[in-house]
User: Fold this.
Amino acid sequence: MRILIYSYNYHPEPIGIAPLMTELAEGLVKKGHNVRVVTAMPWYPNSEIAPEYQGKLYLTENCNGVKIQRSFVRITRERNFKNRALFEISFVFLSFFQVLKGSRPDVIFLTIPGLPVCVSAAILSWLYRTPIVLNLQDILPDAAVHVGLIRNPKMIRLFTWLEKFAYKTARKISVISDGFTENLLEKKVPKEKIIEIPNWVDINFIKPLEKEDNYFRKENNLDDKFVVLYSGNIALTQPLEILIDAAVKLNHLDNLAVVIVGKQEALERLEKYSCGKKATNVILKPFQPRHKLPEMLAAANVGMVMQKHNVISFNMPSKIQVLLASGRAIIASVPTNGTAAKAIEKSGGGLVIPPEDSQALASAIEHLYRNPQLVKSLGKRGREYAKKVYNFEFILDRYEELLLSMKKPKKKLNELL
Assistant:
C-alpha cells in the first residue's frame, strides 16, 4: 500500500509529534508498505531550522526505508500572529508541491496540529481521488482558545471553520483518547468516522534501566540522589515555576534533586526564577539526544507530568506513555477531571494531585521520597500497563488495519464486463 504521511514534524526533531510519526512511518515500512513523508525542515522545539537544513527550499532524504520530502518553512522565535501566519502559509504552499513530486498515494494520513494544511490535503485528496485519515493529536482551536493563545474573534472564526472543514473532508478521524471522541461528538461529527487509537511507546526502546553507571546521573552529580525529573515542553500550559516552588519547600531533604530538561530559551527564564527563589536543589538541563532518552529517564526516581488548571480536559501529554514504559513512578500535577489524570489513575503507575499547588506537590514528592517501596511498586505497575495498553506493535497493527480499510478493492473481471 502506498501511504503518504503529511506532518509538520518528523525525525530528527526529538520531542512532540515527530518521534511518533517517525516510528509509525518506519513501522509501516517494516510491514511491507511504501511510505513517504511530506514534512518541514526540522525546526522544533528550538523554533529555528536546524543548521544542516538551512538555506534549502526543498530536500528529499531516505531514512530506514522511508522517503522524506522536506520543504522550507518561515520560522522565528518571536511569537505573534504575523509570524505564525507566515509559518503556516509557507508550509501549506511549499509542501503542496512536494506531494506532487511522487506517485499517487492510496491514502493520505494527515496529522493535526496545525489546521491550515487540511486545505492543501483536501485539494490533493480531490486530485488523487484518495481518502484522508485525519490523526488528531490536539483539537484546535479549542485548546489554543482555552489557554489564550488565540483571542482575536476573526481568527477564532477562521480556525473554527478550518476545523469543521478538516472533519468534513476526512474519511476517518483517529483520536488518541475518549475525551477527544466526546468533543467531536458534541460537534456533530458522525460517530462512524471516529476511531480511538491511543498514542504508543516503543517498550523495547523505552524500558526500565539500572541507575548504576548511568551517564545522566554521573554527568550531573546525581549519584545517591533522589531525582525528580521533568523533561519536555515548557510553554503556556506547563507551570514549571510550581515545581521550583515545591523544590524550595523541600530544601530540608539533603539528597533531593529536581531536574528540569527542556529547550534552552525556556530554561533561561526558569534559571532566573530559580535563582530568585534560591532553589539550590534544582538542576536545569537542555534536551538530550533521543538515543539517550531511556538512560535519562532511568536516572529518575520519579517522573513529572504538569499542567495548568485551565488546560482543556481532553489534553493528553505523550510523555505519560513514555514515563510509564520507563518503569518510573509518576506524580501528575494535572486537572483531576482531565484525560491525563484518568489515564494515570487507570494505569496505577502514579499519584494525581491538584494542579498549580506547590504545597501539594511538595507533599507528594516527600511522600514518595520516604516510601521507596511505593516508588518501586508504582513504577512496576506503570510498566506493566504500558506493555499491555500502549505497546507500539499492537497499536501499529490497529493503524495498519485502519489504513488498509481505506484502500479501494480491485474490481473483479466480471464486474468490468
Summary: Residues 81-100 form the longest helix (20 residues). Confidence is low (pLDDT under 50) at residues 411-417. The longest strand covers residues 34-40.
